[in-house]
Amino acid sequence: MGRMNAEEFRVSEKMPLIVVLDDVRSMYNVGSVFRTADAFRVEAIYLCGITAQPPQPEIHKTALGAEDTVAWKHFDTAMEAVQSLKEQGYTVLSIEQCEGSTMLNQLEVKEVREVREVKKYAIILGNEVKGVHQEVVDASDGCIEIPQFGTKHSLNVSTTAGIVIWHFALTFFT
Predict the structure, then answer these.
(1) Which of 6, 11, 28, 123 is most buried, judged by most C-beta within 10 A?
(2) β-bridge mates for residue 131, sequence order
(3) What's the confidence (pLDDT) of residue 72?
(4) 57: containing domain
(5) pLDDT at position 172, please?
(6) What is the average per-residue pLDDT within 148-167?
(7) CA–CA distance, 93 with 88 (Å, rounded to integer)
(8) Is residue 1 included in any domain, yes or no?
(9) Order of strands across the sheet that contains 102-103
(10) Would you say residue 57 has pLDDT above 70?
(11) Which of 125, 148, 170 has the alpha carbon at shortest distance from 18?
(12) How far apart are CA 128 and CA 116, in angstroms?
């Protein structure tokens, strides 16, 4: 299928996007986010708080080895991750339903690749029940919301990650 191997992946150009998982309980969700991050060459995943870290059999079950290819780092809290990201020049966006949020389909991902000045982003996904911690939302540069049209107004965290990462990949890889 012409896929790159793990070493080729490690040295390949990555999308300037870091995914932050804020107290995500399910190791299967964590593994699924790793697999999606590998598929779209996300720069890294930051695992915060109670979010499990590899190696774990439950993470591996859904990551299928992506936990070994995607760079990751653990922070005691998502606030520590946000502070680090801001110091590194990332635009930090919480994926959360809140007043003033930007609908994903209206989010313009800026990129100026011709001069190699690529804007760097981080997206924060929260706990399956409580969402992103309010202090993290407050410290973010903005919130993104996925438009939904049914009776439910939330999605599984790994599904949400896939949709949002795809939106960024459309800009970076096309």
Answers:
(1) 123
(2) 127
(3) 98
(4) 6-173
(5) 86
(6) 96
(7) 15
(8) no
(9) 72-75, 42-48, 15-22, 121-126, 91-95, 142-145, 102-103
(10) yes
(11) 125
(12) 37
| pLDDT at res. 116 | 53
d(CA 139, CA 142): 9
Amino acid, res. 71: A
What token pair was written down for 156? Answer: 């599984």
**Residue 30 belongs to some domain of the structure:** yes
SS3 letters across the chain: CCCCCHHHHHHCCCEEEEEEEECCCCHHHHHHHHHHHHHCCEEEEEEECCCCCCCCHHHHHHHCCHHHCCCEEEECCHHHHHHHHHHCCCEEEEECCCCCCEEHHHCCCCCEHHHCECCCEEEEEEECCCECCHHHHHHCCEEEECCCCCCCCCCCHHHHHHHHHHHHHHHHHC
Distances (CA, A) of 40 to 62, 134, 158, 164: 16, 28, 14, 11
Give the predicted TM-score (pTM) of the model.
Answer: 0.95
